[in-house]
Structure formats: C-alpha cells, structure tokens
Q: What sequence folds into this?
C-alpha cells in the first residue's frame, strides 16, 4: 500500500500544464513563449531572489509570495522572449508605429520593454491556459507577477517578461487566504 502518492505525479502534470501554455493560440502563429519547470533547489533559490527583490523594490508582497513559492509543491515559469513585432501599427504599445517602438531604447527593470502588445497578449493567453489546465487537473495554483519578475531580474529565465505559476497539492489551497505581509 502506498499512502498519499499524489505528489509523485506532479512533475508529469506540471509538464502537461506547460503543454497547455505552449499550445495556446499565438498572434500571427509565432511562438515566442518560454517555459520552465524548476527543480526543488531552483524553487528555493527563486524564493530567496523574491525576498532579495522585495528589499530592492521595497515591495512587501514579494515576501508573502516568496513564502507561497516555498510552500508550493512545484513551480513553473512562463515567459515571453520577443522575436519581433506584429507589424499591425495598432498603437497599443504606446507608439504610432511598430517601427517607432522598435527604434525606442528598451528599458530593463524586472522586465524588458516596451514590447509588441500582441506578444504580451500571447503571454497572457499562455499563462491563462496553463492556470486553467492546472485547475482542470485539480492542482491549486496562482499566477504570480512576483515570481516571474524575480526570475527575469536575476536572469533565472531567458525571457523579456515572465510569470510564475506555483502548484500545490494539499488538503487546503495555500493560495486562498494569504496574508499581505509576513
């Protein structure tokens, strides 16, 4: 008899969740999505980097989120590394033309921008697809700006923008009644 074997499947299910991100619709069919499954040591490192970023940015919620990452059973990162623009000249990036946006100097903080809004939409759809797949698989999760921001800021993922999706298989959803600070 094997008691509580459900955690043994989490690595495989995390890959299924990342498959949902990968196969999510992309603008113009161009896939600029980057996915990553952290091992336990990398998960602990990310939580530490989130705490470090909290001090740099004076954002206390990163401490709460770092604890959520530590308490999670697994975490995936989903990012976007832009290979270009949509050439729609839609203005959603804040510039009149795609050419004008590309000529503008990029700003590197947690994320690198500006980027084509279509690429941001692609990332949002991929992250939403992953979160929905996790829910379909009865895995508690929460989209964390903070985990993606720290992963990008400290170069743990080669992406312009990323979000973290910690995963939890426990008797109670650890992401439900979080405290705002430690």
A:
């Amino acid at each position: 008899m094997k008691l509580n074997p459900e955690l043994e499947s989490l690595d495989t299910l995390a890959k299924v969740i990342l498959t949902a991100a990968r196969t999510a619709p992309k603008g113009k069919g161009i896939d600029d999505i980057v996915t990553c499954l952290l091992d336990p040591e990398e998960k602990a490192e990310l939580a530490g980097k989130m705490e470090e970023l909290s001090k740099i940015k004076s954002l206390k919620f990163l401490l709460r989120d770092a604890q959520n990452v530590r308490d999670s059973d697994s975490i995936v990162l989903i990012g976007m590394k832009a290979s270009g623009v949509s050439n729609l000249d839609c203005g959603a990036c804040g510039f009149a033309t795609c050419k004008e946006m590309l000529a503008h100097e990029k700003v590197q903080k947690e994320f690198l921008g500006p980027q084509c809004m279509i690429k941001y939409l692609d990332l949002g759809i991929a992250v939403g697809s992953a979160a929905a797949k996790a829910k379909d698989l009865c895995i508690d999760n929460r989209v964390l700006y903070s985990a993606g921001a720290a992963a990008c800021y400290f170069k743990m993922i080669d992406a312009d923008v990323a979000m973290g999706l910690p995963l939890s298989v426990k008797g109670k959803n650890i992401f439900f009644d979080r405290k705002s600070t430690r």
